[in-house]
């Protein structure tokens, strides 16, 4: 029997599991050695989210082996990023998962019910930015956030963005995805009071230098509260947005629980 840490503690509390048996569960190996990979089985315990499989550069057989190791350890929901359509077709002969072709993501298991503090808004400058935006949006959804998508609301037609002010003002965190000159996060950052995660994309003409122009523009944003991830890193933005959306105050060490 493999249980999540919270399930183990709840079982001890309810008398369904002895303290000794709980210790055995916690002492299980922190990683599984597969030869080609060391699967981190304790990442959920440390970080609140299980290891994510980076699909690029791995064979379908290697990915399948990692998935099996994770499911055997009790992980019911697994995210596979940067998975090509060809690799996905081959992998689907080995394991059961849902493939999302636009962001090249594979999801093992069902999406959870959202349990975050609010809504993560994912906005793009243009339609060409949607693959990166969908990587961010689905990552946040797999991790348990409610996501609202606002696509093609770039600064070339600012009225498109301003027509969604209610959604922007009510967001707990916004992921702003843009290529070209990367102006969208600065505009959004000047309108809202929540964190903005900026994602530069490699979309643009020659002088965009494969997204470097957008990256530098976002790093130089004059709007406060804007942070920037790497070029085309929708996964990193979605992961960060989800973490922000689940943050709650932590009790200071030594603080009394009394009134």
CATH class assignment of the largest domain: Alpha Beta
Oligomer: single chain
Shape: globular
* DSSP E strands, number: 11
The separation of the N and C termini measures 41 Å
Architecture of the largest domain in CATH?
Answer: 3-Layer(aba) Sandwich
Rg is: 20 Å
CATH fold-type name of the largest domain: Rossmann fold
- What's the pLDDT, averaged over the residues? 87
- Summarize the biggest pleated sheet: 5 strands, parallel
The proportion of residues in beta strands is 15-25%
**Derived structural class:** alpha/beta
Indicate the percent of residues in helices: 25-40%
Q: Write the element-wise H/E pattern from the N-terminal end onward.
A: HHEEHEHEHEEEHEHHEHEHEH
What is the count of distinct domains? 2
